[in-house]
Amino acid sequence: MNTNEELITAFLKNAPHIKEYSIDIDLEEYHKSDDKSYIYEWINLKNLKIHEDTGKKLKIYYDGYNSERQCLPHEASDIPYFHSSENKDFLDDLSDPTGEWKLRIRSIGKADVMQCEEWLILTAADEGLGAAKSKLYYNNHNGGIMKKTEKLDKVKCDVIVKQFKDCHFPINIEDKELHRKMPNFQPRVVTDPDWILEIKDLVNAAGGNISLTDPTIVFEGLGEDGEDKAGGGIHTKFGVLNSSSTKIKVQRLPYEIGKTLTSSEIRYICNQFNKRPQVRKKYIDPETVVKEMVDGYIDDGIEPDDSIWPTVIKSHGFVKTKTIIESATADIDEIKQGTQDAKAGKVRKRYDKSKFQGGHKEELDVILKRHTTGTTLAVGFASGAALAVPIRIIDKIDTNMVELDLKSIPIKKIEVFMYHTQAKHKKKWLSEHRANLEKRMKFIFDDKKIEFDIDMQLEEFEYQTLEETNKMKVVA
Questions:
Q1: Which ranges of the chain have pLDDT less than 70?
Q2: Which of 358, 354, 372, 350 is nearest to 458 (CA)?
Q3: Are 400 and 406 contacting, i.e. CB atoms less than 8 angstroms apart?
Q4: Given strand 18-23, what is the order of strands in its sheet?
Q5: Nearest to 36 by CA among 44, 25, 46
Q6: CA distance 281 to 166
Q7: C-beta neighbour count of 13 within 10 angstroms
Q8: Where along the chain do its domains lie?
Q9: 78-107: b (≥16 Cβ within 10 Å) or e
Q10: Are 264 and 272 a contacting pair, CB within 8 Å?
């Protein structure tokens, strides 16, 4: 049997236009796999040199995937698989006897995974322009068209996570102030202020150096008004924002990819970044997975007994799934009960949503504005995120002093209006979170001689006629 080196030598002898043949995969892993599909890339070396020397835009790259021939090109016993392109320029250039090319094997996996990865690579090509529109690519299209055909396409999501971890989406250094007011996807039940403070201390101890931090993941254009929205790395984001550093690490998912994702897919991707140990990372906990399932029901109608959930839970690193599914089922049953209550006219006030979404945020804003003065700061928070309140209050104090020019007038009192978006959050607040928050508030604010009241009252329910309830459904 010929060795791999001998096969490659013979292969290149019969394909003189291939000047470089790069196998950027684990060959041992590839040969053990039952499905030997792979991603390949052709690079026109002559055009690449002209582009690098002059900046002139020329056709250079062609990317595709092969699932037809279950072997690498140099391993074929007859005619190797080279491509399936119908692009005339590519066919002409590749058949030019004076041409000089590099053939690169860049990724391996099952056929459906390779199809997704091809789409992802081509869609993100040329700094997000996409291969089909780029002057640097021969590709006529960006691979398979990924639409929102499933509520949670795990294959597609895993490919995106892999591309992030392999730095296919580059890690850039940006001005951290660009991220201070950027909204966040929040897949966790609550952010951990202790972990945020630890990251802040790490950066400060390094003189503002952020080399030991992970990048924040940004989904471009997925905010409510088309603005960017942060996802994975939220603890790192808050830690760096509160540190002495002026910069922050960022990886961005182009909008053309992000727009194909459902809410459940975004949550899954964010949670996957906490699946296993990485530098300065807070691992995912069972409560976060329960939240992912509940939000999946709310946003995409995925029932807790859907067959996708055991697979998702195990993908997050958990061995047992029963307890998590039972907890999510109980929460979803409570939501269903709330829906029945709403039909009867009893509606929980949602201070976290605007009136355009059937909520009462504007009512809360009026209350907070009335209670906020030069020395008093009134804030409102959902009790489900009570542990993160102290850090958010610190941010609000800084913002409040800047906006109202209160640098010389210190805040003397903080009034916290806590609201409950779910019945279980109220129970948890009364049994545990209120006491914990009080301890944290005392620890942070007592030495600053700032008083606080965490028992400011808000109306919990409103009672509506059937006609008013139906109007809320239309608005929501």
A1: 1-2, 144-150, 187-191, 274-283, 387, 395-409, 464-476
A2: 350
A3: yes
A4: 18-23, 101-109, 37-44, 61-66
A5: 25
A6: 17
A7: 8
A8: 4-145, 172-343, 355-462
A9: eebbbbebebeebeebbeeeebbbbbbbbb
A10: no
The structure tokens listed for 341 are 């209550």
10 Å CB burial of residue 369 (0-12, 13-18, 19+) is exposed
Closest Cα to residue 348, out of 231, 225, 203, 459?
459
| DSSP string covering 158-199 | HHHHHHHHTTSS--EEEEGGGGTT--B---SS---HHHHHHH
Helical pair 193-205 and 389-403, crossing angle rounded to 10 deg: 60
Query: E-assigned strands of 202-350?
Result: 216-219, 229-230, 247-253, 346-348
Angstrom distance (rounded) from CA 297 to CA 258: 20
CB distance 107 to 158 below 8 Å: no
Distance of alpha carbon 69 from alpha carbon 36, whole angstroms: 8
Write down the residue that tokens 């995937």 correspond to: 65
- Residue 58 DSSP SS3: coil
pLDDT one-digit tens code per residue, 224-272 = 889 999 988 888 999 999 999 999 999 999 998 898 899 899 999 988 8
Q: Residue for token digits 């394909």?
A: 15
Q: For the segment 107-145, what is each residue's pLDDT rounded down to a tens digit?
A: 999 998 999 999 989 988 888 888 999 999 999 998 865
pLDDT at 148: 52
Comparing CA positions, the residue from 150, 155, 125 lying closest to residue 41 is 125
The amino acid sitting at 318 is: F
Number of H helices, E strands in the chain: 19, 13
> Global pTM?
0.60
Task: From 116, 92, 93, select the one nearest 39 (Cα to Cα).
Answer: 116
Phi-psi region of 208 (alpha: psi -120 to 50; beta: other; left: phi over 0): left
Q: Are 385 and 421 in contact (CB under 8 A)?
A: no
Residue among 216, 246, 252, 220 nearest 233 (CA): 216
Question: How far apart are the C-alpha atoms of 203 and 179, rounded to whole Å?
Answer: 17
- Per DSSP, the three-state class of 278 is coil
| Residues in contact with 102: Cβ distance below 8 Å, sequence separation at least 6, in sequence order | 18, 19, 20, 21, 22, 42, 43, 45
Pick the closest to residue 123 from 145, 103, 151, 106 (CA basis): 145
Q: What is the mean pLDDT of the chain?
A: 85
Q: Which residues contact 401 (CB under 8 A, 6 or more apart)?
A: 407, 409, 411
